[in-house]
Design goal:
Layout (H helix, E strand, L loop, with lengths): L5 H24 L5 H23 L3 H4 L7 H25 L6 H9 L4 H28 L4 H14 L7 H18 L2 H15 L1
Helix pairs in contact: 1-2, 1-6, 2-6, 4-8, 4-9, 6-7, 6-9, 7-8, 8-9
């Protein structure tokens, strides 16, 4: 079996969200209120649940997630995409702040005392790997069985929704579309991981 069915993709997504929220409540119940620890715990489950779930489904991870090397020229191209995306991300962020607070700024301020290395690990590296495996690996690939266009927009909207705040949602949907197109252009999930890392890393 090399392709994941939509129902399995949905089950993995649901379980990931439940585990993400559950670990946050568990930590707070145990008296752990450190933002760094809570976010790190959540991001760990965002990576582990899709990987374990996909393995249980019997899919070939390398093929399903399209784990393939990318050319150096593609890395330059991705860097330029990240740079050119920032004006749109900033605009969508500003528009959202007419209605809600900037959630990312608050979380970032709580993390900075832990230093740049840990901040980059939790805010850039872990989301780049875990969220891409979940969204562009599991969700997008399983939804492709229905329709490539449906998979493109549905995975982007879900990517916006799993951020669970209206501040990040608009630009997360925009980036979700860009990342899918990037995977199709390079035939590798590593390209969307690199773009995700750059966007989050620059913000950090």
């Amino acid at each position: 079996m090399t392709e994941m069915k939509i129902k399995w993709g949905n089950r993995i997504l649901l379980l990931t969200i439940v585990m993400m929220i559950g670990i946050q409540f568990l930590m707070m119940f145990m008296g752990i209120y450190d933002t760094m620890t809570i976010v790190m715990g959540s991001q760990l489950f965002v990576l582990l649940v899709p990987l374990i779930g996909s393995k249980i489904c019997g899919v070939k991870l390398r093929e399903t997630f399209r784990i393939r090397s990318i050319r150096p020229v593609s890395l330059v191209f991705i860097f330029l995409i990240a740079f050119c995306s920032f004006p749109i991300i900033s605009l969508l962020n500003v528009i959202s702040m007419f209605f809600v607070e900037n959630e990312v700024a608050g979380v970032a301020m709580d993390m900075y005392p832990h230093g740049l290395f840990l901040s980059m690990l939790v805010m850039a590296v872990m989301p780049a790997v875990g969220e891409e495996v979940l969204m562009r690996g599991v969700i997008y690939r399983s939804y492709q069985r229905k329709s490539p266009i449906f998979a493109l927009f549905a995975s982007a909207v879900i990517f916006g929704l799993i951020h669970m705040n209206f501040n990040q949602m608009p630009y997360a949907i925009f980036l979700g579309i860009i990342m899918v197109l990037l995977i199709e252009a390079t035939d590798s999930i590593l390209s969307s991981m690199f773009l995700h890392f750059l966007i989050n890393g620059f913000s950090t």
